[in-house]
User: Which sequence fits this backbone?
DNA sequence: GCCGTTTTCGGCCCGACTGTTTTCAGTCG
């Protein structure tokens, strides 16, 4: 685990304890924010920790947190947090994570009910011990028990690739409900985060009870968690919660903005509104008349409400696409004009045929690329060390190159390049000799083994591949699998700088299990001006549809078409490719 | 705990829903 992650965990834990012990909510908020900043930081914090002023220059990190970070880097511990940890039973932090239980309730359960962890909470509910605690009625206790049981069998956050099809099916189903005029999924799904906590669906309807019933009575709904006039939550037996919000069509934009988040972005927008003597909520942007009663309930006309764009415009800030609405400071607000889009992709540069572990013949693969209007396709089957993937021996590779070049002659609407996805061996050497690599038009170099080596070795290993004169791009640089495998943790700033210096690209692998580079590493590359390719790593025809996940991640990293070779015109792309030969 | 084109002190986003209340606290997003 990187020290960023360890530090983020310590701050998160401290925030939880502060909450339970009843600290000032704004202080809890500030500590939580530091945890999130540390988690999202693209580079290792350890080398920065010497410089307290430098740490405090990061928006959201003040004197107190900077000192704690420094102490942790130097000594491996944070004294104040250790004291804090001793102030409550360690198991209480998990109790706070049970949905429906907040700090106030946890504190009462602990002090008045003797609850010290989830197990004791469960057994004390079952034995009826908690029934005379204030505000703990039968129904509340039953709900807590249910939430514990659900969290025990749920898998945590769902991968984007699993959540999106589910959300699209829900949108299709609910759009048929009576009175529905507009519908969209929102939340972290719309922002394209790599994992999703729950699915948010927003509906404009003249007959709210109809979409509400369409959801609660849908097959696959395991439990209706709550259901009111405008808000309904259900749990699907697929193990995910769906939140439905119903609004009037006239404020759909304000509601979409609100339910897309992120929470931090919403807070920023509301603060901007206040500074301009306005109030922003999910019903619209209103003039602030000093009344505490919400403006929409008093018949006040909003300044803007029907589209997101109108609200950004009225606040006099640039429009931000959903993928960029994370925890950004006001200073880097602007969105690049030529962010990558699915339509801007004109080449697929990493995919497999049945020569190694794909299912498509060479012609079937070319057919897929032509159908999508790509001007270039690089065929990149595995190299010899990837035995599990039927990697090509030198002899088979030479035959394959010949077959690809022959196929290239048969089409005049697409250039088919003979490439290879060459293993980067544990010590940084490549899996084929240079004279073999020289015969390839295109080289993707990827790590597939020794994915648990230490960060220093991993950095050196990947640096060797980046510096190799015949390598065009580093495929899925960390080898991580989301929710499955951590992968390598190289010093990304070093890799990004080296890649820029050697005119080597880093791949953003679009497969939703990988999304590697991840969003924050894409950002690092984009800010450095390093090339980033977006490829599907297709093994079967349907994999070409995974491109959208790579695009979402690329946009989250602020990747422009200018820095993404897949977006370039053929001549420019081929010129760059030849420059490595 | 963090922050400052009024500020180094005094603020810090806003509304829906539930359960247990009899007017609202707690949680969530």
Assistant:
């Amino acid at each position: 685990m990187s020290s960023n992650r360890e530090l983020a965990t310590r701050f998160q834990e401290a925030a939880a304890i502060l909450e339970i012990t009843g600290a000032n909510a704004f202080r809890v908020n500030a500590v939580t924010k530091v945890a999130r900043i540390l988690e999202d930081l693209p580079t290792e914090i350890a080398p920065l920790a010497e410089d307290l002023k430098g740490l405090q220059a990061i928006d959201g990190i003040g004197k107190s947190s900077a000192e704690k970070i420094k102490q942790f880097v130097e000594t491996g511990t944070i004294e104040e947090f250790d004291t804090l940890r001793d102030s409550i039973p360690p198991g209480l932090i998990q109790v706070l994570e049970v949905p429906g239980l907040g700090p106030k309730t946890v504190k009462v359960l602990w002090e008045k009910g003797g609850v010290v962890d989830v197990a004791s909470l469960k057994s004390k509910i079952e034995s009826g011990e908690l029934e005379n605690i204030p505000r703990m009625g039968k129904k509340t206790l039953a709900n807590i028990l249910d939430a514990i049981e659900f969290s025990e069998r749920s898998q945590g956050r769902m991968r984007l690739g699993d959540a999106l099809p589910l959300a699209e099916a829900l949108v299709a189903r609910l759009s048929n409900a009576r009175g529905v005029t507009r519908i969209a999924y929102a939340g972290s799904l719309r922002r394209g985060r790599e994992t999703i906590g729950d699915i948010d669906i927003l509906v404009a309807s003249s007959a709210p009870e109809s979409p509400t019933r369409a959801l609660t009575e849908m097959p696959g709904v395991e439990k209706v968690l709550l259901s009111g006039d405008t808000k309904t939550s259900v749990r699907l037996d697929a193990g995910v919660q769906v939140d439905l919000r119903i609004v009037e069509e006239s404020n759909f934009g304000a509601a979409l903005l609100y339910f897309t988040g992120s929470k931090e972005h919403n807070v920023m927008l509301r603060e901007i509104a206040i500074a301009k003597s306005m109030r922003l909520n999910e019903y619209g942007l209103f003039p602030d008349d000093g009344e505490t009663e919400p403006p929409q309930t008093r018949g006040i006309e909003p300044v803007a409400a029907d589209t997101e764009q109108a609200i950004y415009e009225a606040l006099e800030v640039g429009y931000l696409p959903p993928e960029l609405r994370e925890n950004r400071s006001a200073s880097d607000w602007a969105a690049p004009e030529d962010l990558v889009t699915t339509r801007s992709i004109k080449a697929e540069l990493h995919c497999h045929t049945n020569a190694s572990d794909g299912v498509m013949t060479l012609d079937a693969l070319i057919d897929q690329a032509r159908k999508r209007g790509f001007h270039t396709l690089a065929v990149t089957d595995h190299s010899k060390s990837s035995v599990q993937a039927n990697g090509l021996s030198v002899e088979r590779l030479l035959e394959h190159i010949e077959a690809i070049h022959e196929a290239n002659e048969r089409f005049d609407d697409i250039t088919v390049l003979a490439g290879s996805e060459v293993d980067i061996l544990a010590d940084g050497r490549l899996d084929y000799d240079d004279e073999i690599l020289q015969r390839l038009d295109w080289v993707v170099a990827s790590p597939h083994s020794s994915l648990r080596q230490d960060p220093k070795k991993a950095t050196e290993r990947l640096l060797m591949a980046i510096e190799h004169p015949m390598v065009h791009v580093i495929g899925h640089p960390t080898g991580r699998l989301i929710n499955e495998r951590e992968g390598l943790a190289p010093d990304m700033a070093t890799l990004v700088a080296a890649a820029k210096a050697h005119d080597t690209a880093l791949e953003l692998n679009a497969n939703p299990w990988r999304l590697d580079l991840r969003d924050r590493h894409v950002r690092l590359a984009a800010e450095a001006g390093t090339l980033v390719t977006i490829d599907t790593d297709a093994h079967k025809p349907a994999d070409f549809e995974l491109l959208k996940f790579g695009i979402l991640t690329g946009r989250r990293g602020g990747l422009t078409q200018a820095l993404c070779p897949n977006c370039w015109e053929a001549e420019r792309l081929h010129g760059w490719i030849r420059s490595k030969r």
Q: What stands out?
A: The radius of gyration of chain A is 26 Å. Chain A has a mean pLDDT of 93. The longest strand of chain A covers residues 415-423.
